[in-house]
Amino acid sequence: MNWISNYVRPRINSIFSRREVPDNLWTKCTECDTMLFHRELIDSLNVCSNCNHHMHITPRDRFHSLFDGGLFTEIDVPEPNADPLSFRDQKKYPERMKTAIKNTGEKEAMLVAIGDMGRTKVVAAAQDFSFMGGSMGMYVGNAIIAAAETAVKQKCPMILFSAAGGARMQEGILSLMQMPRTTVAVEMLKEAGLPYIVVLTHPTTGGVTASYAMLGDVQIAEPNALICFAGPRVIEQTIREKLPEGFQRAEYLLDHGMLDRVTHRKDMRNELITITRMLMKQDPAIAADLPAPVPAQDGAEFEDAKK
């Protein structure tokens, strides 16, 4: 037995050999290019610690941070026709859907759930911009209607987090029909005397802004969120003029009376608890009595509180 070749050399190689580092340990901020460690990013709810930029957060992770104890129940949404127009561009529509489902782990661009937030039962719906740009199709319309019907049945407020590039072109006129459908759903809440709160996140554009995203009893936005119908570049090319600094950003809209609040993501839970309890004519929440959200765990996802 050769002690050097059989033991010493493999031992040295194992110590000095380059170890593979997982690709998801660090994330670059899309605003300032700062490299952010994944655990710190999860703890800060995907907000850059250097420039305070609010990056994308999935609806599921958002709900875990908002609902008491991170516990919520998903609401079933009726499934629409998978490919009503047999649409095809460079790929078939079903192929694009399969890719989006694989990349996000979600079946569509909106997640609807019910649970307690500050001891108050609420229905929440959130769009996922990473799922085909959060585009508004028939499923999103069905999701908002299902959320509104559940809120009316349970006699509780509805909170909607918008994030979309507009209507889904693969569904053509059927996607545009979701604008009046969702408007009727919002009217159901108003007729029942129930609060409808909208939180506009980056970006909220197109037909979404022309319908349910701007119909809230209270309009809140995350800092620096782009909120518009047509984007600033399109407007500049149309009118051939330079737009004001920060045009169509959340702070600009707040200054011009289009929003009620611009709220940091870490303060969003307490803000929504205060507003919902006030609109439901309940006593103010006692901070020490409220269950804390589930703490972030190692890895890319929050802990499943049910385990």
Provide structural commentary.
This protein is an alpha/beta fold. The protein folds into two domains: 18-55, no CATH class; 57-289, 2-enoyl-CoA Hydratase, Chain A, domain 1 (Alpha-Beta Complex). Helix content is 33%, strand content 15%. It is built from ten helices and nine strands. It has helices spanning 3-16, 38-43, 59-66, 93-104, 138-154, 172-176, 178-191, 232-239, 250-255, 268-279; strands at 26-28, 35-37, 73-74, 110-117, 120-127, 158-164, 196-204, 218-221, 261-262. A hairpin with a 2-residue loop joins strand 4 (110-117) and strand 5 (120-127). Helix 5 packs parallel to helix 7 (178-191). It is globular. 38% of the residues are buried. Mean pLDDT is 88; it is low at 297-307.
- What is the topology, as strand order, of the major beta sheet? 3-4-5-6-7-8-9
Strand content: 5-15%
- Order of helices and strands, N to C? HEEHHEHEEHEHHEEHHEH
Question: Helicity range of the residues?
Answer: 25-40%
CATH class of the largest domain: Alpha Beta
Number of discrete domains: 2
Radius of gyration: 22 Å
CATH architecture of the largest domain: Alpha-Beta Complex
In quaternary terms, these chains amount to single chain
- Gap from first CA to last CA: 51 Å
Judged by helices, strands and strand pairing, the structural class is: alpha/beta
Q: What does the average pLDDT come to?
A: 88
Number of strands: 9
Main beta sheet? 7 strands, mixed
CATH topology of the largest domain: 2-enoyl-CoA Hydratase, Chain A, domain 1
Choose one word for the global shape: globular
